[in-house]
Amino acid sequence: MLTVDDDEFWQGMSPVEFGELPTLQDAVTVVGYPIGGDTISVTSGVVSRIEILSYVHGSTELLGLQIDAAINSGNSGGPAFNGKGNCVGIAFQSLKHEDVENIGYVIPTPVIMHFIKDYEKNGGYTGNVVAVN
């Protein structure tokens, strides 16, 4: 977990609120700083699949959202928002193949909340199952 020690940094900031797990065809907006520009990028699409995915960087399989919004290099780690402005996940990878266009993947809020609860309870990520309300 990263933080900023200077309390002034946080003045005037509002935390992002997490939303529920979206359903198929729900609209999503992904925000980030992908390669090819110097300013923020916003792409939109819909949830096209919800299933257990292979997390390339984590060498594990967890729940994930497939979306048709572009997720390009540098966009990973950016939030994915629903139509109400709630964060429903974090963009983390895309499918690269010559026959594929705009297939991206999002870590959904239940997986994020599991990580946060584990971190808060144990002072670091242990992978232990914790109750998420």
UniProtKB/TrEMBL annotation:
Keyword Cytoplasm set for record: no
Pfam families: Trypsin_2
SUPFAM superfamilies (UniProt xref): Trypsin-like serine proteases
Annotated GO MF terms: serine-type endopeptidase activity
GO biological process: proteolysis
InterPro entries tied to this protein: Peptidase_S1_PA, Peptidase_S1_PA_chymotrypsin
Keywords of the record: Hydrolase, Protease, Serine protease
Superkingdom assignment: Eukaryota
Similarity section: Belongs to the peptidase S1C family.
Record-given protein name: Protease Do-like 9-like
Organism (species): Trifolium medium
